[in-house]
Amino acid sequence: MSEPNTPLCFIGVLCVSVVHVCLVRFTTETQSTRRKHREKQFLAFTLGLMAVLLIPACGKRRPPLPPTERVQQRTEFLSGVQRGNQVILSWPAPLRNAPDGSVQSIRRIDVYRLAEKPRAPLPLTEEEFATRSTLIGSVDYDQIKNAGDVLTYIDTLELAGEPARLRYGVRYVNAAGQRAAFSNFLLLEPAAKVAQSPAVISTGNEVSEDAITISWQPPPGNIDGSTPVNLLGYNVYRSEDSEGDSGGAPLNSQLVSGTQYSDKNFKFGNKYRYFVRAVSLGTEGGQVESLNSNAITISPTDSFEPSAPASITIAAAPGRLSLFFPANPEPDIAGYDFYRSTDPNLAKDQWTKLNAEPLDRTTFQDEKVESGTKYYYYVRAVDRAGNWSDPSEVVSETVP
């Protein structure tokens, strides 16, 4: 609820006080002075009338006013990067927008570009930029509504002729058609001799037990058609299949010099998309990536059996035989099964299995033995995908 109309109350009370003073003085004055104060009588009457009219307003409350909408009307974090023959602009999406019917609602974001000579003075006022720049496109309302944390705009360039420095700026436009101030300016000098995209090829042998290996063909030339290729190396990107080709950071920590890359940080059962970008030397010594190569989708399945357990030793003691061996090198081993026979020539699949479920330890004690009997053993490993190893070498010992 709103507060009482305090200024009007104050004026009304003041008028009453003045009237009271005037009436007291009027009754105590002599007849000779009354003529001199007719004006004062009129003044007292006027002030009294004002008091009567204003005092009833004291304590009245007005309906509450709606809160002022606070909508970000410009950004100061415009950034961008060249990739191939494109400049990809990005900036944080507004934290909130006003309702559709509000004049404060941001309906589109206009993108402006100004081509300057590389050595032109850097300072430029908003008025100068507005006069000389060209509106090259807009981010529409649907894109604004559905944006995540970042808005992007792609400017495809015709890289021909004299080198130029490009100056970009964006400005928000609300539902009333009013344009906000420009964002910060982004200055970028694109390179024309940037390598074309490489071509990822499918070999059919991408998946091994410990790596997914991606292969590609080098780019045939630069985006302006020139050769030799301006090539420093390659960056390899991976995304979950549902994430598209944004890629994030490359998998490689340093540029890849060859045309293959082995990804050893993966999980069987997941689905991955890989693509590659060539890296060229840009203006002022910076690195510029090509556009994305074609993507290849890999769904690695674990069909690789673990190695057979090795270096098994056996120790005998009255009433038991104990087996010891080092753990398998594979990281996804689920456990081991132990088999026994008194006949070393019996087919392996007819030996007695000593444990009901795979054991996750590398020791086993067999206490169901008879003194003086010689027993033969072998061990098999199984991984989490259910792949079984070959039988280990057979070891034997006689119970004392």
3D architecture notes:
The structure is a single chain. The chain is an alpha+beta fold. It has four domains: 6-57; 79-188, Sandwich (Immunoglobulin-like), CATH 2.60.40.10; 199-298, Immunoglobulin-like (Sandwich), CATH 2.60.40; 313-398, Sandwich (Immunoglobulin-like), CATH 2.60.40. It is 14% helix and 31% strand. The strands form six sheets. It has a four-stranded antiparallel beta sheet with strand order 4-3-6-7. Strands 10, 12, 13 and 14 form a four-stranded antiparallel beta sheet that branches. The chain has a four-stranded antiparallel beta sheet with strand order 18-17-20-21, with no helix packed on it. α1 runs antiparallel to α3. The longest helix has 23 residues, at 6-28. The termini are far apart. Mean pLDDT is 86; it is low at 1-32.
